[in-house]
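A quick word before the example. In earlier lectures we treated sequence and structure as two separate objects. From today on, think of them as two lines of the same record. Here is UBP-type domain-containing protein written that way.
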Amino acid sequence: MGYRCAHAAGIRQVEPSAKGCEECLKLGSEWVHLRICRTCGHVGCCDESPHRHARAHFHETQHPIIEGYDPPEGWGWCFADKVMVDLEGDTTPQKGPIPRYY
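And the structure line, produced from the sequence above:
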């Protein structure tokens, strides 16, 4: 049996903070993929993006679990435990079209 996420019980239903990476939209910067925090709804960009805002959000807040969010992809990642998290179909719906910046 593989390593399990100790934070999965803390996954919440959230409202997206923006229709794209919140910080990149303010900066006018590009992103590759989006991630949404399943603690507070912050939308940030992935580690392949220039600014890695989803990871920065984790370091600032210690909110451990993100969801692949463009479109909702059905998987999660726990930054704290460094493991994939099965969201079991519990994905966060997008609110309108998300701009593409890659």
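Notice the following. Helices lie at 22-27, 53-61. We will return to this example when we discuss secondary structure assignment.
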